[in-house]
Amino acid sequence: MNCLGQRLAERLCDRAEEYGVAVRETGSGATLIDAGIRAKGGFLAGVAVTEICLGGCGRAEIGCARYGDLELPSISVQTDHPAVALLGSQLAGWRIRVGDYSAMGSGPARALALEPRKVYERIGYQDTSDVAVLVLEASGEPPEEVIAHISGRCRVPPDRLTLVLVPTSSLAGSTQISGRVAEQGIHRLTELGLDPRVVTHGWGCAPIAPVHPKPAQAMGRTNDAILYAGVAGFTVSCEDDEELRSLVERAPSSSSESYGRPFAEIFKEAGYDFYKVDPGLFAPAVITVTNARTGNTFRAGELNLEVLRRSLGL
Length: 314
Fold this sequence. Notes:
This protein is α+β, with helices and mostly antiparallel strands. The protein has 13 helices and twelve strands. It starts with a helix and ends with a helix.
């Protein structure tokens, strides 16, 4: 995945002006791609970042969708390698804290550092590569000590490391967060007990939240786009339809006790710590799963446009 991700990152660098990104080399030789901190970024950069997060094993595209009486830009994603692309790469599973710097890490470099290890044990995957590509959801550039930490964990020299920087309070950030709708769906199903290796195909669609300059508000809007208006679907191959039905019924965000309020309120109560929020909330509004062995399809959840409107200030 890192080799595939590197090709996508190189395309960003080669067409930086088109994508609205800024590229620079650090003192240690690492490549930094700014997709929204100081750079303009935008929809194209958001799609590119999404596909890098998918480890080059999925596709993303933008269109317009209607949600009640709202028309919003939306991103759709598809992958034929859901366990590896969504859990092994796109999942923001690497919590990076070095000194005063913190960021959420996602993308193929996670498969080199095995962050978190239990995910790779579940999907039976480990990457080997002499290059590493990591996407950092952060509001600032990482100092050299952070770069050294990441390159050390990935076992590649800094000059073989590419870091893509995308803040939540940017259009590229909002786009790539909504592009995680299928990842949140499979992650929730996996946490409930589904073996991710039986999932053969995955897709998802979610509105792209309007940007907000305040990070906490931007975090709220981008999460609500998935929690209250995101839809994800999967094809699986398993024997037990009843167990599958039970998992799907418990998978949507509406199964969480925290459901029903804008995420910004919930996040504030949790002290702005993701890890203190009920993990059951991080799921699409609607999940559909088809069992290829039986042909049966199970669906649960519903869109909640009232809360979405509140979140967007409408």
